[in-house]
Amino acid sequence: MDAVADTLGWNARMLHRKVVAACGYSPKYLQRILRIQGVIRAAQSCPGTPRLSDIAAAFGFTDQAHMTRDFRNVTGFTPRAYLDQADSGVGRWLDDAWVEAH
Fold first, then answer.
1. What are 3-60's pLDDT values in tens digits?
2. Are 63 and 74 in contact, with CB atoms under 8 Å apart?
């Protein structure tokens, strides 16, 4: 977080206040949310049943159990339970809108 704050010309406390004001989460928790969103997108883009251990490694988790703990903390579900009931099309318009804008 210090590196991000330095890049923006802020101190860590100012970064924390601005992120909380913008989205209601601390920068660290927002980072966890974004990481879990990446895991979800990666898993949904895999053909068949994704290997969660491979996805955990790709996203820098120590192991699959570490990813599962973070996933459950953020979503309330294990990755497998979430993926079994999630609609892979939900939120895709955000991805499409971002691609079109850039």
1. 888 999 999 999 999 999 999 999 999 999 999 999 999 998 888 888 999 999 999 9
2. no
Angle at 56 between CA 54 and CA 61, to 5 degrees: 140
Contact 51, 12 (CB under 8 A): no
Domains and CATH numbers, the chain: 2-101 (1.10.10.60)
Q: What is the reported pTM?
A: 0.76
